[in-house]
Amino acid sequence: MSDKNYERRHLETLDRDLGRLSGLKHPTTYLAHPLISIGISFVFIVLAGSIAMFFFENTANVLIVGVAAGLGAYMALNIGANDVANNMGPAVGANALTMGGAIAIAAIFESAGALLAGGDVVSTVAKGIIAPENMQTASIFIFAMLAALLSAALWVNLATWVGAPVSTTHSVVGGVMGAGIAAAGFAAVNWPTMYKIAASWVISPVLGGLIAALFLWFIKSRIVYQSDKILAARKWVPFLVGIMGGAFAVYLALKGIKKIIKIEFSTALMIGLAIGILIWIIMIPIIKKQSEGLENRNKSLKKLFGIPLVVSAALLSFAHGANDVANAVGPLAAIVQASASGTFAAAVSIPLWVMAIGALGISFGLFLFGPKLIRMVGGQITKLNPMRAYCVALSAAITVIMASWLGLPVSSTHIAVGGVFGVGFFREWDAQRRMRVARMKVPDKINVRTEERTRRKLVRRSHFLTILAAWVITVPAAAALSSVIFLSINHFFNGSI
Predict the structure, then answer these.
(1) Which residues contact 471 (CB under 8 A, 6 or more apart)?
(2) Model's pTM, two decimal places?
(3) In this structure, are residues 207 and 418 in contact, taking their beta carbons and an 8 Å threshold?
(4) Exposed (0-12), middle (13-18) or buried (19+): which is 27, by Cβ within 10 Å?
(5) Distance (Å, rounded) from C-alpha 35 to C-alpha 30?
């Protein structure tokens, strides 16, 4: 009996020890994954620098170009870890995409947008913010761009680490501006371009919010509030997908294939109209089949917006790649050109390998560090269903496309957050309007807790003010950091630059 008790106690002790080891498995995995991700990122940064040095192996600035390429890769990784969550978060939060599917779609379309349509905004970042003719030498210009790239990368990395919702576009523009001021004074900054960019920072979230609200109003009025919701969805969901496909076709015709053939704006509109109509027709039987057997309620409508939401997320990733690749490789492109030719006032020509560093870096950053932020954007900022997420994604895509077409380095973070708040503010307005109507019809049976309604509003507006504060501080912080870095480089080289 004593032996049995001893054996039982021994087995219990062994079970407890195994339980402790099992419990260590999860934190060990948690600790190992970031280390692996950091290791892969480091290898990518070193590889990017090595490739750049290979192309410049016989030049005097080979080391500078290698360092700049590494910093460009570092910045691209941060963009993928931070900004892409704004594109894929709504689709994942609305359960229209799995995390793996979102990462795959984003990686493909981000890379395609960067490689096919990213040139104009890169040129704006590289040459539009600092007036190169005000720089004294090519070396000063090169080190100003290097300081801007390093400061932007450090600031975005720090902000991402502490969870601050900052804009990578703000960071790089502030970095370029601060380095330019430190290198050649306030005259080095192209202030008319800065005013234009600053205006876009205000216009883009407002426009994104308005477009998202308009699409949600359309969906609610034409589908949700109809007596036969399924019949209405069969009519209008294909039309909405057609709009999205047409917009994508116009943008691709204007920007994506211009290296092969130049297409006029009117021709691009006709192409977009034709493709939009074709997609509309194709989607009619698809949506009809999806809607068979669905109950006439709002929950059923969510299933019909799965395809539009996935397509809009892909479109947004393409537009984001075209627009935000400039944040990673704009200063790098300027450094490469100035190092290769010795001139820095001419228009920037962007080598394919430079664009590839930006595109691959964004994809790697998304894959290695993006899932956590995607979950946060999709489920923790605001409650999203497929219809609301579709409005946010489509609004952001259209706004980014318009901005990239105009060559404006707008912030995808601003646009996406503007779309989220546009949807939220419209829902508040619509709920209050319906409540007023209900009170007029049945005044004695409607009891609304005004305090609770006000509290919800205050939480939303408080969050908006927090984000706004982060936006405001990013440009001066990045500019100040860039100025310090440039002056440190200048001091290190004994003023020789």
Answers:
(1) 166, 167, 170, 201, 411, 414
(2) 0.76
(3) yes
(4) exposed
(5) 9
